[in-house]
Structure formats: structure tokens, C-alpha cells
Amino acid sequence: MTETVSKDMIASVHYTGTLPDSGEVFDSSMEREPLTFLVGHGQMIPGFEEEMMGATVGEKREFTLTPEKAYGPRDDEAMMEIPRNQFAQLEESAKLEVGTQLVAQMPHGPAPFTIIKLDEENVTADFNHALSGKSLTFNVEVIELRSASPEEISHGHAHGPEGHQEQPVAEKKCDDDTCC
Ligand code: ZN
């Protein structure tokens, strides 16, 4: 039976993501190893998986996702003015400017943001994902497909292609830095 992109498969793909309006490439795996992910477990933005379902090895697909199927709409509430003096320590070593991306340590975990405004008093931080509110075009080629191991399914992600399967079970712990 021909293997296809479907739930509980491990898919390796090469992709190039462009902004349909400008043609600007925002991300590409072409200079790297293919992107490997467990299908159907929320590892990818939703539209990406939907559009790739049923594809076979060697198949190429091109599609454009609406923001809702990609990184979501922009949320104008997800902005915050932070007193600039809270950045005093950071400013000793780094220059703050509009467009700088930083990570805030929030009670629920790290929250990346982009500086969108800057004055003497305040830093305006935008916590929206840089690609939120944008339609995204992807060109994708399926490089490899295999069934996920029960362990990968229980972890909810793919394990590395470099012989991780061949390693003894004891070394396959998810808590191990080398695994995930
Ligand atoms: Zn794991």
C-alpha cells in the first residue's frame, strides 16, 4: 500500500513559505534538513497538515492559507506598554529599536514579542506572532514518510531520523535533551 500523509505518520518535507502579496520568503527548509513532524498531533499550523493530507513521497503541493488556517488573526489586545526602565539592564548590552524581538518571562511561560513603538517612557510590545494576520503560501515536497512509533505517538512528536529508532529503549526518554 502506498504511504500517504495521514494521521500518525512521520512526514519529512522540504518547504518554502512566501508571503503571497510580496513574494518575500519568510521561511524555507531548503538550506537545512527537511522538516520532520508527526501528522495529526498539532505540531504544525492547522492548514499545513490539511493541505498535505494524502500526499505521497515525491509529491509537490502548493497552497495558500488564510491567517485563520496559519498563525491566526492579529489580536489588537495582545499589545502592552511596558515602562522603559524595566529594560534598563538589557539596554546596557543591547540596543532597543522598533522591530527588535525579545522574550518576556510570563507566569505561563516564555512569551515572544516584537517592539513596535519606543519612546523615552515606554516600550510598546506586540505579542502577536510575527506571521499572524497574514496569508501564507507554501511550496512543499514530501521527502519521506514512515509510520510513527507508539512512543512518538505517546510523546506527540517525531523523534530524530538519525537512528533514534535503533537506539536502546532506555535512551529514548522524552525528558532527555537529545530526544526532543
Ligand atoms: Zn519525545
Write a compact overview of the structure shown.
The protein contains 3 helices and 9 strands; from the N terminus they run E-E-E-H-E-E-H-E-E-E-E-H.
Helices and strands, with pairings:
Blueprint: E1 9-18, E2 25-28, E3 35-38, H1 46-52, E4 60-65, E5 79-83, H2 88-91, E6 101-106, E7 109-118, E8 122-126, E9 136-147, H3 150-155
Rounded to an integer in angstroms, the radius of gyration calculated over CA atoms is: 20 Å
Mean pLDDT: 88
The low-confidence runs, each spanning 5 or more residues with pLDDT under 50, are 163-173
The geometry reads as elongated
Order of helices and strands: EEEHEEHEEEEH
| Cα end-to-end separation | 30 Å
**Which ligands does the model contain, each kind named once?**
zinc ion
Number of helices: 3
Remind me, CATH topology of the largest domain? Answer: Chitinase A, domain 3
Helicity, in percent? under 10%
Instruction: Let me know the largest β-sheet.
Output: 5 strands, antiparallel
Name of the CATH architecture of the largest domain: Roll
**What is the percentage of strand-forming residues?**
25-35%
